[in-house]
């Protein structure tokens, strides 16, 4: 059985690779790792499992092997195909149907190999948690782990055994709707959250009956589509690939993820699911990954060229790296895809491709072996079914501990963007008006992946506020659009007809909570926007409410960083609440009335306006560094800063903190040595609150210029008024080394600057020399 404490095979991959497993040592995610945790953690193959896999592969017919590498969605599954030995099924969630299909696989297929049932449990199954971008804003790996654990528990109850999560795509693209699904713009933060989510999903061992196998996705560099348009191409240097996009995958694998999904997009012209370099050379060879790769949905078919005349005759085509279905199948399998999702070209053309020598039996056997290995590790042969009968499975949903965790997670994910004049927290004993298109909304609070969440499970913002401030009033103001397919009005809130009523409701109250933002249809897959401001007339609604003179707290719901330049001066207090999940209302009320003191920080920069995108804190320097005071440098002349309006790591509190006394344990260190950086944080205000202490480094002189700052440690601490703590981070070669364009991890001597503070603008500074 797989165990993280078991013997580790220390693959001799060298220091370069070791460094990729950045900072996964502690659950706190606060520190860079110690030497041991830096080593690749590929488990030794379990001889018992390998023998069973070999035996089974030896018994399989070619047709059974081709079925084993096939992964079908619900609507394509037939019982006959299950009898023939189908490998995996996605998106069936009805426990009775799962049990029956599994029974057929186990009892009626020739070899009785169980099916692997997979689903996108991204931020909860039935108990929906905040979107992952929000969960990342908690800067709290425990929260992310907990979310994944409850998602796995509920999913496993219906008979699922794999989730297509975590999504670990670093992104600098707020236009891209899928930025909502991962941890934002920083590779370190994404790595910490990826590891936490894998641990939450799998536990120590994904054969556990409440556990699922995790599948980090989308391998790789899916987060940087040109123009922010989903599925679009990406072109990047080796060093960028290795510095930004690969680390979170490595972190997920290092804590035991055994399946990976390849991406739709092409990298440098080479599609993610046909890419031998990323799938085989990096993932399988360099990293020693012995699990399986599933393709994304029809990504194999999409490698075909579209027909010149009626492209729509072929529903899935486009990349143009394969002439036809057989060529696409050969390309995918030979590149390293082991399981083909939705399209069935490997299954359909495998025999012909083998006969023609375009694929080898050796490679096909390898793919089958990888899938069977995961099925054995998952314990599916011993326990093919959920431990709950279908009728009982339903009773495992929305249990009180899961709902309480969702509320806590939502509260901890919220970011206090500004709070002029301490408008917040509001007084629950005063009369509160709850206004805005998202104020009494259930649907959107679930965000762009809602698993099996039901709108009716959601407690609205109004209801949450009304419970804590009885007698609260409500007005919608305007209505946003939930249209799936963009048409003339993709945004909604086009009419101000409801503004007068909203103003009246505001006037009659003492204070206003204004719930504005996006609908859930505006982010997530295939939902890119070219504007990042508040959709429709919401900014006008804010101004109208503001004109009443009542204290106004704006609560923003969104699946992405928004461009808030036009409203920032109209909104004295603003909370970014993301899409908080089933406990949206209670969590918003907790924060608005101060039961929970907000402590979240932005996991991605909020631009002034869309023309500034991409804007991210960990950018490279230029020969003309930004200087707003002079002309000849790198800047937008019409934007007052070269940073975002709200920068990475920014977030306020109802109390105040002082961060001081940054100290290094040593002024010099050997290239392969380590040192510690400690910093004091004190609560200088009069409420208990959370601060996220952040540690950044910069290598000011290197052979290739280095990002102006890189996050290398953080810790969220809770302090009572007057209380202080010293937080210590360990730095080592994984921190001061860097990737070059030949895929080598370089350790150079020289000065390293260390910054500590409470955002990416941290200003405490110390330096040390690497010898
Ligand atoms: C998405 C994946 C998802 C898959 C299965 C695809 O369209 O890109 O993230 O896991 O569908 O639902």
Summarize the structure in words.
This protein is an alpha/beta fold and 771 residues long. The chain contains 22 helices and 28 strands. The model is unreliable at 1-40 (pLDDT under 50). Bound molecules: beta-D-glucopyranose.
Distinct ligands, ions and cofactors found in the model: beta-D-glucopyranose
Tertiary shape:
globular
Tally of DSSP helical segments: 22
Spatial arrangement of strands, main beta sheet: 7-6-5-4-3-12
Tell me the helix content.
25-40%
Number of beta-strand segments:
28
Uncertain parts: 1-40
Q: On the 0-100 scale, what is the average pLDDT?
A: 93
Q: What is the rounded distance between the termini?
A: 43 Å
- What is the makeup of the main sheet? 6 strands, parallel
Strand content: 15-25%
Structural class: alpha/beta
Question: Measured on Cα atoms, how large is the radius of gyration?
Answer: 26 Å
Oligomer: single chain
Supply the key terms:
771 residues; alpha/beta; six-stranded parallel sheet; six-stranded mixed sheet; disordered N terminus; binds beta-D-glucopyranose
Describe the protein's topology.
Blueprint: E1 8-9, H1 15-18, H2 35-38, E2 42-43, H3 47-59, H4 62-68, E3 70-73, H5 79-84, E4 88-90, H6 95-108, E5 116-119, H7 132-137, H8 141-158, E6 162-163, H9 187-202, E7 213-214, H10 238-245, H11 247-254, E8 259-261, E9 266-267, E10 270-271, H12 276-286, E11 292-294, H13 325-335, E12 340-341, H14 345-355, H15 361-377, H16 390-393, H17 400-413, E13 415-419, E14 432-435, H18 461-468, E15 473-475, H19 499-507, E16 511-517, H20 538-546, E17 552-557, E18 573-576, H21 584-592, E19 657-664, E20 668-669, E21 674-683, E22 689-698, E23 710-719, E24 724-732, H22 733-736, E25 738-739, E26 745-746, E27 750-757, E28 764-770
Parallel strand pairs: 3-4, 3-12, 4-5, 5-6, 6-7, 8-11, 14-15, 14-16, 16-17, 17-18, 20-28
Antiparallel strand pairs: 1-2, 9-10, 13-18, 19-21, 21-24, 22-23, 22-27, 25-26, 27-28
The protein binds beta-D-glucopyranose.
The site of beta-D-glucopyranose (BGC) has 7 residues, from loops.
